[in-house]
Amino acid sequence: MAAPQNRLIANLCPLATLMRYHAPQWRAQVRDKDIGIDHVKTAQTFRPSFWRREHHLDRMTLRELVVAYFQYPAIIAYLALAALSLGLFAWRPAPLAPTLIAVAAATLAYPLFWYLIHRYVLHGRWMWRRKWMASTWKRIHYDHHQDPNHLEVLFGALHTTLPTIALGVIPLGYGIGAAWGGWGSDAAWGAAFIALATGLLTTCVYEFVHCIQHLAYKPRAKWVAEMKKRHMAHHFHDEDGNYGITTFFWDKAFGTYYDRAKGDRPHKSPTVFNLGYDEDVAKEYPWVAELSGGVATGHPRQRSQDRK
What we know:
Blueprint: H1 15-22, H2 62-69, H3 73-91, H4 96-122, H5 131-146, H6 151-154, H7 158-181, H8 186-214, H9 222-236, H10 249-254, H11 279-284, H12 287-292, H13 300-307
């Protein structure tokens, strides 16, 4: 891997342009002989400077991840928008009590929001059935399960994450503030702004923890190591469970938590890398396969070895 650069991106474009280029485009592909494809075409996002090459977490150090993380366009966008939200909060501040309640509510609600999205949207077998949604589903989750350690497709896409964060936490914060000071009050708007800032910063933490779980690195903290173990089972053993990233509380609450060390789910899921989108499904709903250059089969590492 190339040595990390000494400075951050020098030529950042405006946020609107950043979001536009962060939407999926598609990379050229070479087909394998007779088993579908050996490497899925993945979404190619805007790549300034450091990001003009691929990065795979199973070949990176923690230091390299930190450098890459703070140069990634989505992370820069989250941090910039969080700073803007804090500025808006300073312009129309809420009293201390609704501010603290909004921060706590957004922080606690976030894992539930993303559990539900992960389980019922990203793993729901309905997006690929609609041509106009196929490219979005491919970008936001199919590519990640096809090649779990590929850093570029691990991060969420701004055109999907930003609306989701805003819709999840702004009404929550506004409602808390409105209950305190009335609709349209500084308390309502201030609580909404601080809730949005909390959601954006929580997303940054969530994304970094997600990266750590795929990094070739053994965490020293036992609780981080346990999270990593559960998430690796989700990607390499059975995708229908362990949906949490920073906590598995909601998996336990909704019955989707499992622990292989205790004998749970002894058999590997045949759809762990394709989320149920196999060659038979592709015949009826071909759009994801067309974007991917086919339907890849087998373990990502084995496919990579086969290409050599």
